Amino acid sequence: MSVEVGGRFKCLPRFQLETIVLVLLISPSLINGAKCILFNFGDSNSDTGGLMAGLGLYLGPPAGRQFFHRTTGRFCDGRLYIDFLCEGLKIKFLSPYMESSGSDYTNGVNFAVAGTATDANGIPFPLSTQVLQFLHFKNRTRGLFPQGSGSMISEKGFQNAVYSFDMGQNDIATPLNANSSYSQVIETTPAILSRIEDAILNVYNNGGKKFLIYNTGPLGCLPQKLALQQQIYSELDSYGCLAAHNNVSKAFNTGLSVLLDQLNSQYTNATFVYVDIFRIKYDLVANHTKYGIDNPLMACCGFGGPPYNYVFRKTCGEPNVQPCSNASRYLSWDGVHNTEAANSIIASKILSGKYSKPPDQVTDSLQSLIPSP
Fold first, then answer.
1. Helix (H) / strand (E) containing 330
2. Which residues contact 56 (CB under 8 A, 6 or more apart)?
3. pLDDT tens digits, residue range 20-30?
4. pLDDT tens for each residue of 277-287
5. Residues with catalytic annotation?
6. Which ranges of the chain does DSSP label H, i.e. alpha helix?
7. Stated pTM of the model
């Protein structure tokens, strides 16, 4: 049976109380032996191999050299933040929806595809398509369940699942890449937010009740942006990041926060949790030495050396492009995506509950629900 605290359903796995922001959404789960189930929609930040499976592409070495010791379709040297979240929840890594071989969907599905945006123009798997794929998956699961085959996720499982959305970065990065002004990019944000709302409500109207929505990170701190666009967007902040890019991220994030406040107010039988990825990632840049990071604005796997180690068309995976020897001292793996070391820190901060809204409710009643070691 489900556990309810303060009107919000939670799934409490067996680990510390401070891991409650994601836990407060998932129920009934590890307390009574039922499954924690997670469905994810997103881009390359959480793509565990969707682009490679969907388009038949190959992401070669040195991607995957850490932990997996092979290529996995992840734009990283190892695990992504979503992999660390799954580890924290004691569930298997999420298989990409379009991976036909070796997939396991018993704990959920990852619909994320690298390069995805909310806008469908020229993009094979935009957010709207990912949601349609989920609805197809749910209908197929419903048909196969009586036969004892498929993922065996029950109707209750879909209802109690968490639906995470990590979307928007490519929508605002694309016009910036085209050298659009701050005001021109800001004009596009209402449409982006509207498409995100449509996607969330489509899942809600099909039974989803627990949503985890990530804002976008500080684009102006990516080595790629700094290397390619600093001559155009010349103003840097106190930590060496492009101010215009980060200001666009902040404006988008403010709009997303307001949207989720409205959804929480309007749909009181559901929970829409806002996770402040911008604050998490910007803290890694601003206080990098605290986390053992030597090069917060420099790619580990790139070309050209300091200050950013990024050159267009001489990127990670290309011939004669060598990775650094110790990626744990870097935030950026390839100029755009995080290293496994950074992803581990990001996941721990997500699970801390300190970067979420509404904040987790650390109460005696909640603490009593955590099983004893």
1. strand 330-332
2. none
3. 445 555 444 44
4. 999 999 999 99
5. 44, 334, 337
6. 20-23, 50-55, 81-88, 127-144, 155-160, 169-177, 182-186, 189-205, 223-229, 243-266, 277-286, 340-352, 364-368
7. 0.88
